[in-house]
Amino acid sequence: MHLIETRDLCYTYPGNVKALDHIHFIAPRNARIAVIGANGAGKSTLFKQFNGIFKPTSGSVLIRGEPISKENLREVRKFVGLVFQNPDDQIFSPTVEQDVAFGPMNLGLDEETVQHRVTEALGVVGIEHLRDRVPHHLSGGEKKRVAIAGVIAMEPQVLVLDEPTAGLDPQGVRDLVGFINSLSSKYGMTVIFSTHDVSLVPEVADYVYVMNKGQVVGTGTVEEIFINEEMLNSVRLGVPVLPKLISTLQKHGISISPAYSYADAERSFLSAFGKQP
Ligand SMILES: Nc1ncnc2c1ncn2[C@@H]1O[C@H](COP(=O)(O)OP(=O)(O)O)[C@@H](O)[C@H]1O
Ligand SMILES: [Mg+2]
Question: 47 pLDDT exceeds 80?
């Protein structure tokens, strides 16, 4: 049974804006899934279906095999944690600590457990030092981390991050890559994130969905998706710089093995130049 599955999912906004068009999406256990697509492709609309914020116009969303209903909505939200694109939509409390504690407190956990979870979550995103600060006065990147910590503190099985790197500085992006990968490897969490930054994808995803105009136009592993330069260009995305460079070198007859992530590319280049990685 899949953690999340959508079948023929369609969603139309009032005013007849068709935002999702027959989406089939599957999130297996412990996967890291990237949903890539240009602005307006439908990524945020899709994510809001995963925890019942929006209801399908037609088709279905199944969480652990069950359709989302009034009766299981609370359980679904415990299971699927969604971090919005804009942290201001998510942060309400007067201090960072209270904000991160809000979710676990609503789960009815005792004070000690709540405190423990807050400390853990702040640690995962690297903002223990902001614990007593006023979220409203933080930078965009800091707010983003607070919003993510608030969701992690609820210990969802599936963490859904909408454009998590938008507005982060380069170190912020590296930190994000690090903690997404550790949530996946250490806690077995399934992580689903959206982005239009294709270079990020090989560093944090096993599986990719490509969206365009409300449809899924490609699915596959990182290797399967990024080989298809034409398709990616046609949806205003393109191929990340490393695989693009390697394929250009190959076209010029240089013997170098394909690579997508930075670590793999480093090995490919070193061995192409006859050096031991
Ligand atoms: N509240 C809304 N009302 C009407 N149309 C909307 C609304 N939100 C998004 N849309 C439209 O739905 C489509 C998908 O938007 P969205 O899911 O935000 O895409 P993405 O997250 O990939 O940028 C776009 O055409 C967008 O204009
Ligand atoms: Mg969006």
Answer: yes
The sign of the dihedral angle between the CA atoms of 7, 8, 11, 17 is positive
CA of 37 to the centre of ligand 2 (A): 9
What element of type H or E holds 85? none
Closest residue to atom 1 of ligand 1, CA basis: 13
pTM for the complete prediction?
A: 0.95
The domains of the chain, with CATH numbers, are: 4-228 (3.40.50.300), 240-277 (no CATH)
Report helix, strand or coil for 63.
strand
pLDDT > 80? residue 277: no
126 Cβ below 6 A of ligand 1: no
Of the candidates 4, 58, 8, 14, the one whose C-alpha atom is nearest the C-alpha of residue 216 is: 8
Residue in 20, 35, 44 to alter for ligand 1 test, most ligand atoms within 8 A of Cβ: 44
**pLDDT tens for each residue of 68-82:** 999 999 999 999 999
Residue nearest to atom 26 of ligand 1 (CA): 40
Nearest to 5 by CA among 46, 40, 37: 46
What's the gap in Å between 15 CA and the centre of ligand 1?
A: 12
